[in-house]
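Hi all, a correction to my earlier message: I attached the wrong file for Adenosylhomocysteinase. Here's the right sequence:
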Amino acid sequence: AASKNDNYVKDISLAKWGRIEMEMAEIEMPGLMALRDEYKGKKPLAGARIAGSLHMTIQTAVLIETLVELGAEVRWASCNIFSTQDHAAAAIAERKIPVFAYKGETLKEYWEFADAIFHWPNGETANMILDDGGDATMYLQLGTRAEEDPSVLGEPKSEEEKFLFDTIRRRIKASPGWFAKAKGAIRGVSEETTTGVMRLYQMAKRGELAFPAINVNDSVTKSKFDNRYGCRESLVDAIRRGTDVMMAGKTAVVCGYGDVGKGSAESLAQAGCRVSVTEIDPICALQACMDGFAVVRLEDVIGEVDIVVTATGNKDVVTVDHMRSMKNMAIVCNIGHFDNEIQVEALRNFQWTNVKPQVDLVEFPEGHKIILLSEGRLVNLGNANGHPSFVMSSSFTNQVLAQIELWTKGDQYKNDVYILPKHLDEKVAALHLPKLGAKLTELTPEQSDYIGVESKGPFKAEHYRY
Ligand code: NAI
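and the right structure:
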């Protein structure tokens, strides 16, 4: 995939626009800018070659330049075919940072780009991974297994898997032994999201994790902010940009009431929708009730709802049978990481009419149509611009701290999944308070004795749930 300039972007002339928006984003990303100041001239990431697979947005561009300022070399791809902001990719490419991403890339290109981020021009490979959803990690993992036993690449179960398998086969043919070498060079991975973290814990359980991993998602300043308050802003933004439909008064159902579901339900409620929720977990179901949302089964409401949003990180949540009984022009979208929450593959034989990029009408044999956003891929990055900068600063400050930790102290970790210590989580939050004009109260010595915490923190026990 690498072109002679070692990047693959849509249009380099968008770089100026991207740069202006990056400069605006920097003002809204105090955590990342504080790390640039703190480590000025110190280059803690010197020698790190980071393969990054994370939505190539304006906010990610600010993350990338932070990593570079701290001494890293990076190569970047997006972790979703629809999530790249082409002006952000152009601004990064213009600074001669290799980036392989454009909005609407094909699945074939997606896996070629995933391969390209591991190859340095001098023949070296990456020694760190910064992942979102786990595809970059999985690419090395599966490739290594396929090198030992080609039969692990069986019959592909989807179009996506077909291209993944093809890319792995081509790589093995072109450079035998490459996967084992590339995997062996990795010192650690930091993982951004719930779904990627789930994959890492499964790998660790099977004893397949070949390097230490930091679960960035479960920093409080990530999942309780980005997943929740981010989606609270970006879900309705995406539905509006995609459909221009009047939100107030509509009935909406959110599948899953975890962090993303909570933010999504709130987003819809703020827009005036009448919102209900589906859950499998009694605790989250009870939370939904207490927050004022009806907890329902999808089958019971599917014929009446105007908007269905999946936020479970699970698969087959909205089935083709559900969609068969939907209202005409009901809106269907997913804000979870992968598109398998909605059975989109099963809709391929029906009549599709493209309205504009990432908006399709799908007509059922029964006669009704649904409005499907981003072909079931995460709607806030497909139809809108993802979360705002401020909340991504909080997530990405954790990412940078995780990369520094793994790069400088990786040998002190086992091949397991770790969470950043609470004092760093509190530090990330503290870096974002001044921008909001917030003033913390300081404990008196008597008070800190009384509640049993140090006056400078950590302020909560590990078991505290926020
Ligand atoms: P979570 O684990 O907090 O919440 C998921 C919820 O779905 C859980 O409460 C679970 O009980 C419920 N659930 C599972 N199967 C279900 C089913 N069949 N029906 C109804 N509910 C079900 O996870 P979180 O952090 O909310 O993430 C959800 C997804 O969103 C993940 O794929 C994650 O990677 C992704 N994500 C997307 C973001 C975006 O910007 N679009 C941002 C952050 C995360």
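Sorry for the mix-up. The two ends are 44 Å apart (CA to CA).
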